[in-house]
Amino acid sequence: MAELMGPRLYSCCNCRNQVALHDDVISKAFQGRNGRAFLFSHAMNVVVGPKEDRQLMTGLHTVADVYCNDCREVLGWKYERAYEETQKYKEGKFILEKSKIVKENW
Ligand SMILES: [Zn+2]
What we know:
By secondary structure, the chain is mainly beta. The chain is built from no helices and nine strands. Strand 1 (9-12) and strand 2 (18-21) form a beta hairpin.
């Protein structure tokens, strides 16, 4: 039963712009501004805003808000820099809020 299916994706909740691949999920155990959030190794079709230092639960990070490049909905943020050694693995990775993305092809 080989079925040809596209990759499992996450899309913007607002305009269905495809923003991330399920295969790029690193962790589903993150905390966003409004509840659960997922950590992704890549995101696509997004705009990264200006960098700013933010004190998070896990220490000081340089982060940038991530917007849908279509409707400009804020979807999450990107970790540009982590100052704590244990948090370095998050650098260059994307947080997308679970409430802002919807599943496609599942
Ligand atoms: Zn959108």
